[in-house]
Amino acid sequence: xxxxxxxxxxxxxxxxxxxxxxxxxxxxxxxxxxxxxxxxxxxxxxxxxxxxxxxxxxxxxxxxxxxxxxxxxxxxxxxxxxxxxxxxxxxxxxxxxxxxxxxxxxxxxxxxxxxxxxxxxxxxxxxxxxxxxxxxxxxxxxxxxxxxxxxxxxxxxxxxxxxxxxxxxxxxxxxxxxxxxxxxxxxxxxxxxxxxxxxxxxxxxxxxxxxxxxxxxxxxxxxxxxxxxxxxxxxxxxxxxxxxxxxxxxxxxxxxxxxxxxxxxxxxxxxxxxxxxxxxxxxxxxxxxxxxxxxxxxxxxxxxxxxxxxxxxxxxxxxxxxxxxxxxxxxxxxxxxxxxxxxxxxxxxxxxxxxxxxxxxxxxxxxxxxxxxxxxxxxxxxxxxxxxxxxxxxxxxxxxxxxxxxxxxxxxxxxxxxxxxxxxxxxxxxxxxxxxxxxxxxxxxxxxxxxx
Length: 452
Description:
Blueprint: H1 4-21, H2 26-41, H3 47-55, H4 58-73, H5 78-90, H6 96-112, H7 115-132, H8 137-148, H9 150-153, H10 158-170, H11 177-205, H12 219-226, H13 231-245, H14 247-254, H15 257-281, H16 283-288, H17 291-324, H18 327-336, H19 342-356, H20 362-379, H21 384-399, H22 407-416, H23 420-442
């Protein structure tokens, strides 16, 4: 077994001891793990470069910008209005509040790109509604948590940009980011359906009833007040749909610049989301968004961004050591030496990322292992696009719900005030089902929108 596995063991032991036993914040534990890793590998001379490379990583700032945009968006009435409409439609169904959580969190995921941020934004509405309609607290926490992981899988999640940059480097001028986004949405449809079916079965098992009538808003009044909110994801989706659908049109006129034009859309999405959210919220919200107020909102949002940003940055410190030591190459060669067929790789790789995701953030996993996963899958006969598009699903989404980190679950558990043991026990059912669907999709057994 390669010595590189020892390096992973060092990171795991230091981080888990610090987080689980010493009760230190995970971002602090990741910094200690970085120092321990440098000490074990004897790479002190390169420590400045590891830190500098992480601090100049563009994707780190993409993540920060999207989280801040989500904080600004929460100051508008868009999210509340949309959830009210969904409640008015599904609240009368058995377990209707849970379906609201799935649809509402998918909606928010298409705007925020953040799993834990998704829970915090929509969970404060959906989790109390689920509990009032008879959901056990641990189930309410998990429904919201596992629905909110869609924020890591649906564009514009930060790790999606990392995954595409790797794909584009390996296969230059072959795929556009618009095509990539369409495929991601096509994959997301299957995971949304899986969560709906899982929720339906669990509602039957726990005998969950429809919401109380007094808690269900009027459909007519909800639509009258918030119909504009429905258009926000469409506004975000349309530019990418157009550039993907009319790819030849743009290529004929822009040549090689067509790919750059498609990629540049990502830079405008956060501002587009906030501006449209404010405009769609009406005159009262526009009046509140004075320069002074916006500055205050951003400042407040930064306090929420800092822990996440610190965790990602320190994880990038670790990943830079791994890259410098060519850890991914050694592990890739080790896996390749088994000459596993595609079906076996589709079983092993999501399991591997699930274990790694117990600690390393999804964006870090993609950065370290994304290239080797795509290469190994392609060499075994898999579709590179599918392999790249599944990286946010098997890295980002799994990271948000696999203990001990599982930030999405802990956030939902805090809102639901559920106990740790039953919450994590129920969580593992959702994790196993997510893993199983990941294997099926990677095997290419399901039709995916956007794949020719």
